[in-house]
Design a protein that fits this description.
The protein is an all-alpha fold and 229 residues long. It has helices at 3-15, 21-50, 71-93, 104-126, 142-163, 170-192, 198-223. It has one domain. It contains 7 helices and no strands. Helix 5 packs parallel to helix 7 and helix 6 runs antiparallel to helix 7 (198-223). The two termini are 18 Å apart.
Length: 229
């Protein structure tokens, strides 16, 4: 850490009263619940409007075309996505072994590998179920893209509030928060959308993660940086 940055960190710490650990835990728990509730609410409203009132039918937006997924496929894809989302949250919100947060390598690798793992999990689990891999020209993935962004907005804002400051790599921390929010949204979209056709998944499921990563990086640089406080 440079002498100038060290001075900025010390000045920021001296200028802001330090809350107790219990107060921080309570605040983060409340903010996390608000973010989760906003994501769930956005999912229910959007999915209900786009699926003629049916939020979950294991077939989502194309259930009317008799593409009912096997419950085992749903368990595999949604369960795998949930595990990857938990790993993303651990990387994004945890500080690792340092009070200054995770290293550049952890943040960089996490932000790149999480989307790849989610894509591999969904496609890999769906290969054994032929119908899920069928091409659907009338469902390119735009609805899933919109749903992913809508669901992820609340969690992303809550994660930024919980993180508050990233002394070393604010943009990378923000990018990782965006990936974590997108991974959480991926779980919801997976429950709604039965299509595993790769171009559809790339546009409707992976592209939102890329967008959220960029937005998170911009917000992180603006809101988490000590230089901007």
């Amino acid at each position: 850490m440079s002498a100038a940055l060290r001075a900025q960190v010390l000045a920021a710490a001296a200028a802001e009263a330090s809350p107790t650990r219990t107060a921080v835990k309570r605040r983060n728990a409340f903010v996390g619940m608000v973010g989760a509730a906003s994501g769930v609410g956005a999912f229910v409203i959007f999915a209900a409007l786009m699926s003629e009132g049916e939020v979950l039918r294991l077939g989502g937006e194309v259930a009317q075309r008799h593409l009912e997924r096997s419950p085992w496929l749903v368990v595999a894809t949604a369960g795998g996505a949930l595990g990857i989302a938990a790993a993303a949250l651990w990387l994004a919100l945890g500080r690792g072994g340092s009070m200054l947060g995770r290293s550049r390598r952890w943040l960089l690798y996490g932000s790149m590998l999480i989307p790849i793992c989610l894509l591999a999990c969904m496609v890999g689990c769906s290969v054994g179920f032929g119908d899920a891999m069928v091409r659907w020209p009338d469902r390119p993935g735009l609805r899933c893209l919109a749903l992913s962004i809508v669901v992820a907005v609340g969690p992303l804002l809550s994660f930024l509030t919980m993180r508050r400051t990233a002394f070393l790599y604010p943009a990378l921390n923000g990018a990782m928060l965006g990936v974590a929010a997108g991974a959480c949204a991926w779980v919801a979209v997976d429950l709604w959308c039965p299509v595993a056709y790769v171009p559809h998944v790339v546009l409707g499921h992976v592209l939102p993660l890329v967008v959220l990563t960029g937005v998170g990086a911009l917000l992180g640089q603006s809101l988490l940086s000590v230089r901007h406080r």
